[in-house]
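agent> fetching stored inputs for the calcium ion docking request
agent> found them:
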Amino acid sequence: MKKSTTTIAICLTAAAAATTPMLQSCLKSSATTRAVSPDGKIGVNIGTKEGRLFYTVDRAGEAVVDTSYLAIRMLEGSIGENSRINDISHSSFDETWTQPWGEERDVRNNYNEMRVAVTEQGDSPKEFFVVFRVFDDGVGFRYEIPEQQNLTKVTVIDENTEFAIAEDGVAWSIPWNHEYYEHLYETSPISRLDTVCSPLTMKIKDSLYLALHEANLTDYASMNLTPVGGSTRLRTYLTPLSTGEKVVTETPVQSPWRTLIMAENPGGLMLSRLMLNLNEPCAIEDPSWCKPGRYIGIWWGMHMKDYTWEQGPKHGATTDNTKRYIDFAAENGYDGVLVEGWNKGWDGDWSANGDKFSFTEAYPDFDLEEITEYARLKGVSLIGHHETGGAAQNYEKQMEDAFSLYERLGVNCVKTGYVNLLLDGKELHGSQYGVRHYRKVIENAAKHHIVIDNHEPVMPTGLQRTYPNLMTQEGMRGQEYDAWSPDGGNPPEHTCVLPFTRGLAGPMDFTPGTFNFTNKAQPGTRPNTTVAKQLALAVVIYSPLVMSSDQIENYAGRPEFEFIRTCPTNWDKTLVPEAKIGEYVTIVRKERDADNWYVGAITASNGRDTELDCSFLPKGQRYKATVYTDGKGASWKENPYPVEIAEIEVDSASRIPLRLADGGGAAIAITRI
Ligand code: NOJ
Ligand code: CA
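agent> prediction call returned; pasting tokens
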């Protein structure tokens, strides 16, 4: 770890790097109004215009963000509108830290920081800082408002941070207030955006990919982006509380980091760890109990209406059925079995009456003690389920008892759910109210050594660095839509967009692995993929916990199940050999602590021929590659089932030809011989 704050040295290097006329003289610790990335490619400038605080961003000598104002309007007065820059200090930081689990083991956190001390002038002057961190792959900045006499209570009415994107381009977005981010991404010019949530992915200048988002969302409202007058100038729109206020708190206040990732190809966005680097280091002393893994569930059966969540003749969560799933899990190397509908409260319109849920009382036909003991003997864990129906208060009241019960019974993973547009009938999931609730759940779960898989969350912001027990979340249109969505399910391009949009925010519990596309419950709705693409999604869509979605019967007699069953969920390294957002993507991952490599290649509706260049393999080693591709005549629409399996020997000089059917995919397990 290296942190340098030596004023003179910094002043000289920073002054040498400055390219704008805004350069200030190097008095006291203030050096320059410009900070550059360690590789010198990205620059940020700060200044004031008629008292308004602004910044700009450039990359490789070209503007990326034009003059963009920085301001927060508070009931207690604004900042950023009548500002005087008092001091600017520069420092550098470089360390490599290890993730307990993730898409790679080691993450380099290397940036140059510019800390800008500002006075908001007026009758009641206020002090604040804007802190910029400039990385080789982008920029993060946040507001810091220290404790001070003129500002104790803080009521944010609006945060007016701007991102004036230097030119128009393509944007991939979803609307800001749609149900739990479960929406298909829309493509539009940046200048035609409506209010959208972040991450907002964009492409400008033919080959520059940008993603706007936030990191470390703590006791604040989640960020959305809204265009200013049909231009490419975007402004933050914080998710409001029911009172209309955005954030109600006290000084000291730190906003989340506003983040801008930049890359020359879509893969570069995916491989950026800027979001994680802008979160605090791990707060859990020994996170070794936060274990990645694979699970199956008494789940798809409910969505197919073969089972019910509530009690009755088709109740899915019975002791016998759960034991059957536990046996299957043990035989096939799964770590866990999720069982939904085990607890009292599912009867009637559960999503409207969440207050009825008990998180400690099981239905009489589900013997929690017997099941957890049975699972323990088989080396499998029950995965707990807490659907709250959005009744956050009801959950908070029971949380301590519920987590204690699970901890005592060896249940160390809980899937939570919030199926309701509003929490407690009044507040949006992404509001400060929701943010506080979700944090409470993560922190309490950690005390009981429980990891969380949160469905219907607030958009992730990299908090898993600090709380590695926040392992995965839904917060997107997952595979459940392929069971019951009246529009026929997720279209073929959806999974070619997710890794570059929602996926930039954090792991996704998408639940790939459906093998049987017959749907009596909602005819015409199904996974709009081939089966080979279902296999590939296990690699493409990153999650440390991956559920194989289908009912266990549907895996019987299917040799391709081997890939789903054995594909790891924790990695040393990730590569993106090729990607075009919305069209295709190939991802290569190296298994954590093993010289085995897994590949997923997917395409949208159009088939494609491609080739996997194996030069990522260490030289001089031989490997067995088991290649699962779309079989003869396969296509997502007409004939999704054929899968061809071939075994070949490969080394770093090999090139594996892959034919992907329309809406198809390929999955490869490359294991060291
Ligand atoms: C929505 C979740 O996404 C799904 O996985 C779950 O089965 C239902 N809620 C019921 O909790
Ligand atoms: Ca959901």
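agent> quick read of the result: The CA atoms of residues 12 and 409 lie 61 Å apart.
agent> awaiting further instructions
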